[in-house]
Amino acid sequence: MTTKHGAETRFAVDIMLGKLAKWLRVLGFDASTQVLRDRERMEALISEGRVPVTKREKWRDLAGIVFIQRNKSFDQLAELLSTQHLCRDDFRPFTRCSVCNSALFAIPRDAAFGKVPDYVFETASDFRKCPECARIYWPGSHKARMLEKLQSITGREGEEEGEKCLRLDPEED
Ligand SMILES: [Zn+2]
């Protein structure tokens, strides 16, 4: 079994933590949603090299998983990034469908005509599409608003090198 690190980390997020899974996809992480109810399933995912992420109490002490303690999805994201030592350098926004977790592929600008808001078609030049659900993404589609919010937990641009990883106070909730 090989567990990948950094941007290559693949997660198996408990179906109960759907919003957290969406956040991870926005950042470009492979985050499938799974029903993490039985041990067999958990062990199978771990041996596939996925990191199960759950809030179910019974898995709290299982090795190889991330047990989430916080309640709000954004706090959970911060908690997960912190425990996995994931930094801004590991983020690959605009590469994965936030709904179905598929890797996006580039489409010609003309192919986006009529399928995105007019002002987006006018101003964006880079469009990507989900092979599963056919949603079309552009650099600003979830980047601007969501990444802005993310800045609030990852710190400001231009800060010193060693400060890129999240530092969270575990008692702060
Ligand atoms: Zn999709």
Write the layout of secondary structure elements.
Layout (H helix, E strand, L loop, with lengths): L9 E5 L3 H9 L3 E5 L4 H9 L2 E5 L11 E2 L5 H11 L21 E3 L10 H6 L3 E3 L6 E2 L5 H12 L19
Parallel strand pairs: 1-2, 1-3, 3-4
Antiparallel strand pairs: 5-6, 6-7
Helix pairs in contact: 1-3
The protein binds zinc ion.
Could you characterize the architecture of this molecule?
This protein has helices at 18-26, 39-47, 73-83, 118-123, 143-154; strands at 10-14, 30-34, 50-54, 66-67, 105-107, 127-129, 136-137. The chain folds into two domains: 6-92; 94-141, no CATH class. It contains five helices and seven strands; from the N terminus they run βαβαββαβαββα. It has a four-stranded parallel sheet, with helices on both faces. A three-stranded antiparallel sheet has the order 5-6-7, with no helix packed on it. Helix content is 27%, strand content 14%. The chain starts with 9 loop residues before the first strand and ends in a 19-residue tail after the last helix. α1 links the parallel β1 (10-14) and β2. The protein is elongated. Residues 156-173 have low confidence and may be disordered. It is α/β, with parallel strands linked by helices and 173 residues long. The structure holds zinc ion. Residues 97, 99-100, 102, 130, 132-133, 135 line the site of zinc ion.
